[in-house]
Amino acid sequence: xxxxxxxxxxxxxxxxxxxxxxxxxxxxxxxxxxxxxxxxxxxxxxxxxxxxxxxxxxxxxxxxxxxxxxxxxxxxxxxxxxxxxxxxxxxxxxxxxxxxxxxxxxxxxxxxxxxxxxxxxxxxxxxxxxxxxxxxxxxxxxxxxxxxxxxxxxxxxxxxxxxxxxxxxxxxxxxxxxxxxxxxxxxxxxxxxxxxxxxxxxxxxxxxxxxxxxxxxxxxxxxxxxxxxxxxxxxxxxxxxxxxxxxxxxxxxxxxxxxxxxxxxxxxxxxxxxxxxxxxxxxxxxxxxxxxxxxxxxxxxxxxxxxxxxxxxxxxxxxxxxxxxxxxxxxxxxxxxxxxxxxxxxxxxxxxxxxxxxxxxxxxxxxxxxxxxxxxxxxxxxxxxxxxxxxxxxxxxxxxxxxxxxxxxxxxxxxxxxxxxxxxxxxxxxxxxxxxxxxxxxxxxxxxxxxxxxxxxxxxxxxxxxxxxxxxxxxx
Length: 476
Fold this sequence. Notes:
Layout: E1 6-7, E2 14-15, H1 17-39, H2 45-52, H3 56-84, H4 86-105, H5 110-138, H6 144-172, E3 180-181, E4 184-185, H7 186-192, H8 195-205, H9 212-217, H10 221-232, H11 236-252, H12 269-283, H13 286-299, H14 304-332, H15 334-356, E5 360-362, E6 365-367, H16 370-388, H17 391-402, H18 408-459, H19 468-474
Antiparallel strand pairs: 1-2, 3-4, 5-6
Helix pairs in contact: 1-4, 1-5, 1-6, 1-8, 3-4, 3-5, 3-18, 4-5, 4-7, 4-8, 5-6, 6-7, 6-14, 10-11, 12-17, 12-18, 13-14, 13-18, 14-15, 14-16, 15-16, 15-17, 15-18
């Protein structure tokens, strides 16, 4: 990043890039909690099923309940942010994360555990909207892309840390989430420890400034001037020009409605494409890895402690792939990365399905021969890598660019809702599919990955380097 200050392309003044980065990183803590809360359930799935004596369908509903809350949280976050401010929404999300962690750690039944999962999901939905919104509004234009990438990086780091916590807690309880660790079982500690990063998020939200755009919207221009001077630098006249630009933008702003998306086939073609891309991102089964991988490995005879270590390993692969995507998305383009990812995911998922087909049932225990266990680990890790370096990052970049400006907010809402719905569908069905035929489930995910290649090849157009005006042509 250079040093404490760099020349701003927007204002011609000094940008305190270290200060801005710290502000963006604090906001991205919501992304960290997003990833942590989404994946921490992974280490507790089997213990929850045993503790409450539930079947695979109920277990799947409990795990997936957070996604229903996420849809609700994402739906209300924008309205709350415009009414109460970006920082206040972060604080509300932080409180919900903490409450969900404590409630999930001390449930009376599987149903109140499900309710607390919904509460955590609402916090996830809020964080998924407010963090990128806030970062975009406080970042100088020259650094906005890189600072916005902190959100996705924070999500994958949150996933990795949750797997590390799960492994450490299980090891402290003699290698199993089922065992007692003090007054409660180990799986309850796994879920409850989330209260610590939630409190850190709350404290950080007290140290960062409100969005200048929100301050101007609410008539607090003096505060907005001070914050713009801190993050963007420039002379008094330059800051005043930025205030005037924000006023102008707000004056022409119109909240798009769903009926604005209407087209020949019910919706505009570009909206259907965005919905399909969002759905494919989830239908390849990526969240099965992060929600159920420990349970999945155990279902083919891997010891519980080893399965938690494998989950941690795949999270590290996810982080590495995310770094690759950040480096390549502006160099190679969006469409080439998606196509490469689809091919890689198809092959790796098919190999994983083939490896799992060699599991043998001995008595009541499934066993996977050593050679096929290694093959399954390599192919599953390759799947995570190809997803992370392509669909994991690129879909969010693409969705932010592909829609015409006049309907972008409404189209993003529809595409995001589609993604949460597809995520929920995959998550709620996996326990039943796993018990039916694990190899068959992965063959189905491989088929979706293959279909995603042909869809991108036929319908997705490259957005790299396109102006906002050119997006209007792409939408036709």
